[in-house]
Amino acid sequence: MLDVSSCKLSFGGVKAVDDVSLRVEPGSITGLIGTNGAGKTTLFNVISGFLKADAGSIRFMDRDITARDPSEIAKLGILRTFQTPVGFPRMTVMENMLVFSRHDRDRRSSPFSPARVPAETLEAASAILADFGLYQKRDVWAEDLSAPDLKMLEFARAMMAGPVLLMLDEPAAGVNPALIESLASRIRALRDQGVSFLLVDHNLKFVCNVCDRIFAMADGRIIAEGTPDEVIADQKVLELYIGKSAKTDLQ
Amino acid sequence: MSGLLLFLVSMVSLGAIYAMLCVALNLESGVGGLWDLGIVSFFGIGAYAYVIVTAPPAASYQAYIFGFEAPVWAGMAAAMIAAALFALLIGALTLRLKREYFLITTLAFAEVIRQIFVNEAWLTNGVAGIYGLRPPLREAVDPSAYGFLLLALLVAGLAIVFLVTRHMVISPFGRSLKAVRENEALAITAGIAPRRHNLKAYVVAGTISGLAGVFYVWYNTIVTPGQYSSDVTFFVWTAVIIGGLGSLRGALVGGFIFVLLHDILRFVPVSGEAAATVASLRTAVIGLALILILRWRPNGLFPERATVFGGAAPAGAKAMVSHNA
Amino acid sequence: MPRIGSESAMDILIFGTISASILLLSSIGFSMTLKTEGFINIAHGQALLMGAYLALWLDGLGLPLWAAAILASIGCGFTGVILNRVLFKPVKSKGILVLLFTSVGAAYVIYGIVGALAGKRMLAFDLPPMRAWQIAGQPFMTPYEFAIVLLAIVSALGVHVFLTYTWAGKSIRAVADNEDLARVRGFDPRRTSDIVWFVATALAGLAGVFLGIVGSLHTQMGWQMIIMILAVTVLGGLGSIYGVMLASVVLAFGIEIGLMFVSSSYRTGLAFALIIAVLLVRPGGLQSLWGGGKTRTH
Lengths: 251, 325, 298
What we know:
The complex is a heterotrimer. Chain B has a domain at about 15-230. Chain B is built from 13 helices and no strands. Chain B has helices at about 1-30, 40-55, 70-95, 100-120, 120-125, 145-170, 170-180, 185-190, 195-220, 230-245, 250-265, 270-295, 315-325. Chain B is globular. Chain C is built from eleven helices and four strands. In chain C, a hairpin with a 2-residue loop joins β1 (about 5) and β2. Chains in contact: A-B, B-C. At the A-B interface, α2, α3, α4 and α5 of A face α6, α7, α8, α9 and α13 of B.
């Protein structure tokens, strides 16, 4: 599905991504963990084309996508999210959905394509919105939504886009702890429908619970990989997290 | 009475031309997020392209070498094509720049283009301009009634431009344009290529401005470089802001309100030095209106509204409501 | 001395120096407000217009020119403070587009009022004629021109010393970098902002007087100069005060040299062709040559 091999990227001498290779198997949920500044989000940006790697290659479904335009990568079926889910503030919830619809994707390039949105697209969007409890707010501007609603809208947009690979940057951040389990089951349900996942999160419990496979990063390098149990038991990962909590205790 | 009527017809005609420019600017700068301070470039290019194609050959005291006496439709086509090509060229060069740089560079291009109009007399007849251009259907009606016919033509032109632009705004093209304006990175993840998409909007806006340039030539029957200074750009921006940036209705009405504010005093008969004073005060009134609007109604008189879609409620939506409540 | 076209190298040097001085004086203030307030103040051009006409009026009342220039400059300074407090500060939270067009509105108001009071005629300062000094048989500058160049250099150095060494200057830079942090350190952003607007607008007023002395006074001068100021500012990298100093010189001499090849009515066109060329090669302006460019994204 996704094959990252020997990717490197440095900013003015700092190796943000240092010889990283990782794989996302089709129909799997793969997690990426690591402390702040380990290079997780930078790696996300490299895979999704927002940053160009200095070296290495990225393949997606047997196609080389290294250094492709990010919008082209998105069109191939890779959807990435951002840490702050502000959406399109001065567009309605429904418009936020439509921008990610297949209907818009196929017709947006010409200013003269038909303006009417077909009923089935609206219905599909409405059904997803209803599922996330946003249907009643479909005509509200996204800037008027609460933070939890914006988070829900982010997932709703992702569902609308129907990606092959969904890259989630901190999906559990800002989610009510009581709802994290329902978030996990939504992700698993999508996986069962054939969507693959690569996700980054600080919530170790959530990552271990939901992921099939985990990669751990530190200082731009992959230091461990395996099933959640294997990675959690890894000496280097333990040091990283215990060291970190020891540091936070000191502060 | 008939003087007042003719004046009103003239004002509404000018308003229609401004409204056309406002609709074009609103597409790229209101719906799209491009801070274009060079809209006058394409207005001028359209006007000159039309004149070069349709004007008679130069008289002995004139300097321009072209003047093909082509029919009106050919002139209109030439104006739109020329404006579109220049917009494509300028847009391709400048759209990679960041906001403030884009704003200043588009202003820069407008200034360079105006100076070309001034200096290249072989093409434009220089500062003197070209006079006595015959608007279309001039012979069809009695000269005293021509103002009404021209008004009808301009309003028809504005209606077409408005409907076409409205279509673009509510279509997937316009939605994507808004998405880029609101959140460029997120728009990219939806598969939109921001620069290419913005370039299309820029070219469409340029083409419409070029067409407005043709109408402006009909209205004035002369073309001079002074008509295409950056004043026009700032006036159109002012009109769009008064109407409501991003709002189609606002753009449409803004053009007329601007002309009302700016030109209504022209009807007051004054002469000489007093006329200059009145002209200056007119500009001050516009400035004051702009300041007051931005202070108390920064979204304009007709703010951008949420787009509402129809459609039946999905099964289960009701259940969610009661669940939430 | 080799002759190039109709202008000698000496002419280029002299005219280039004079235009650079006036451009510099006009642009420093614009750059200061851009850096500290973060928006493009179109009304800055009209501050030049106001300074020039104010000085002309004071001069007409019988004041000596130097006194008229100083008073006009101070008057402009206070106008700047008032404009900021009454117009710009209240809409600061609404974003730079609102600020930009509020300044366009302010520019229209100043332009309209000055135009209504002064009329559209071209005017000039009534100066006793002075012959240009001769250097090695070649005409050099007139004493007026020399004084303008000298004063421009002194003002630029003054701004540099002010920003670098005085408490107020340091607070200006601190507020520009990070307003909250500056407040914590005990700098008062409100007072700082008053100082910036006073200095910026006073310099513009002075530049306007100088422009009137070298050439003539007409109501379009504010609009013409704001275009040149924008060119200088972009060339120097937005909001970089030292970039502006270099850009004034580069632009002034670039124009003088360019005018050997094209008609003099292409003056501002040439300036803009130059900045278009620079921006297409270096999208961050000249400042990015030495790497100080802060990149702001859309």
